[in-house]
Amino acid sequence: MTQIDILIPFGLPPAELSADLLKELQSPALAMLTARAKAGASAREDFDDFTRALPHETWLARRFGLASAVESMGSPPVAHAWMQSLGLNPGDGTWFVVQPIHLHVAQDHLVLTDPRQLSLPEEESRTLFDIAAPLAEETGKQLIYGDAGTWFLRADEWDALQTSSPDAASNHNIDIWMPSGKGERDWRKLQNEIQMHWFNHPLNEAREMRGAKPVNSLWLWGGATSMPLTHNYSEAFNLSGWLQGLAHSVTRRAHVRSASELIAAQHGNALLTLDALQEHALANDWGRWLEAMRELENIWFGPLHDALKSGALDALTLILTNDKRIATFTTTRPSLRKFWVKPSLTGLRP
Question: Residue 42's pLDDT is what?
């Protein structure tokens, strides 16, 4: 049997805009797949407003056996797995993900800008890292370079520190999303020291001159010790960043550009992530979100519906999320035959 889980972060519109957005959305295949989901195979879960991880991040952590760890640490404990996927050896220590970020002032508080908007080149990241690493070393912490947007900090004594994922905190007042617990003051002291050394650095002045956001702070999250990853996937497709870190334990990993490529490549239980919506949703750009949903309809939902109908695919589960909710729909070839159920996107509403 060929079964695939398809995770679509921010595939659900926000509650306050859902009626208007779904009215504009022309997605007949998605309407068919969600409306004719297998009886008893649709589920919803709501999250608190201030949960330290987004719903899709929590779902992934659970699927890879990290449910208890994400509950205790707040953000997905992905540092070890991510380091390994980048060819680094974390050993047995407690490591955190550290990402260069931009904070902007909004009235009386600081707001975290989506780190994707930095578009930080390798050369600039190396320059900033070379400033930060000795400062971390002075406090007894080891800072390691992963890639342009991802560094790692070892802090064994912070093993109970609660942190928030940058996507959960993006576009919010950072106060309630900052690390909390033993080690929080030490982190803020180090963070402030690095910020001062980056302030008015020629690199940031040059970024501002060309219209780019300055890199003026760091975000700490993803704390983890060595722990086994468990899952039931034989294949994973289109995972990147820390998701690729989790998928490092999957036997076969690949990138596919369309449903036809996926169906040709997939042979067992698989996980596919379609993340084209996330950046638009975090930026509240709902016009671009609608455009991206239409592309998903043409490239993915339509062909996947046809594959189920023809028997090329036995079953698929769509996992759609926003910042407060998960909705899950499992559709099979027999369930598509429920001709008395009209296609509808009402399942995407709150």
Answer: 67
